[in-house]
């Protein structure tokens, strides 16, 4: 009996010792959570410098593009105001031809409301390029007496000058009327019949904008 009890005690002691020994399987289970939070804190930090880098690079580029587009817009605005006007240019002056039919009613010297748009284009050229005398000349077609056409053409030139002054363009203006003396197209066809298109071209107001202080282009 003693030997049997001794054997049971020994087995029990061995079993207790086995339960208290640290197991290898419990330690690795607690180890993985440690690197997982580390990897999670690193991942959100990684894209942050990548997002921060493009922001300062994109901002200067957009500012340069915007300033370039504004310069292009200014340039296109200047060319647009000149190209829509009929006339010619030399080293000394710019001649602007305005249709009297756009500016005035038939046989009248009072400006129509529709004239403002065309006159404003001419005013822009004068403001930008005018350095000397601004010569405004009225012309008519061949219908009517010479005396009447002279009076009408002078009155129309004066009306254009007064409009420009009213816009604040204080320049050295000269006005004159030529009547039908200087046509740019025939008033009649070769067979003597009326030429409405030619007469319409002759009814005009010319503005010569001198780009220098002297009348070098005259």
UniProtKB/TrEMBL annotation:
Organism domain of life: Bacteria
SUPFAM superfamilies membership: OmpA-like
Name used for this protein in its record: Cell envelope biogenesis protein OmpA
InterPro entries attached to this UniProt entry: Bact_OuterMem_StrucFunc, OMP_bac, OmpA-like, OmpA-like_sf
GO cellular component, one term: cell outer membrane
Signal peptide: 1-24
One family name in Pfam for this protein: OmpA
Annotated spans, Disordered: 22-87, 175-218
Coiled-coil ranges per UniProt: none
Keyword terms of this UniProt record: Cell outer membrane, Membrane, Signal
Composition bias, Low complexity: 37-87
Biased composition, class Basic and acidic residues, residue ranges: 196-206
Subcellular locations according to the entry: Cell outer membrane
Every OmpA-like domain range: 90-213
Major place of residence: membrane
């Amino acid at each position: 009996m003693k030997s049997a009890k001794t054997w049971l005690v020994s087995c029990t002691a061995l079993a207790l010792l086995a339960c208290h020994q640290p197991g290898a399987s419990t330690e690795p289970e607690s180890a993985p959570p440690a690197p997982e939070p580390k990897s999670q804190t690193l991942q959100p930090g990684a894209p942050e410098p990548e997002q921060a880098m493009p922001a300062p690079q994109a901002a200067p580029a957009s500012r340069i593009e915007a300033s370039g587009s504004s310069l292009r817009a200014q340039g296109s605005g200047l060319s647009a105001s000149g190209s829509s006007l009929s006339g010619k240019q030399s080293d000394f002056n710019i001649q602007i031809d305005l249709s009297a039919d756009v500016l005035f009613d038939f046989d009248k010297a009072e400006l129509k409301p529709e004239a403002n748009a065309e006159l404003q284009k001419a005013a822009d050229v004068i403001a930008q390029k005018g350095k000397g005398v601004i010569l405004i000349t009225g012309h008519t077609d061949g219908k009517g007496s010479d005396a009447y056409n002279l009076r009408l053409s002078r009155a129309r030139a004066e009306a254009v000058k007064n409009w420009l002054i009213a816009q604040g363009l204080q320049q050295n203006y000269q006005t004159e009327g030529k009547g039908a003396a200087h046509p740019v197209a025939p008033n009649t066809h070769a067979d003597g019949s009326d030429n409405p298109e030619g007469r319409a071209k002759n009814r005009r107001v010319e503005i010569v904008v001198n780009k220098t202080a002297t009348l070098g282009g005259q």
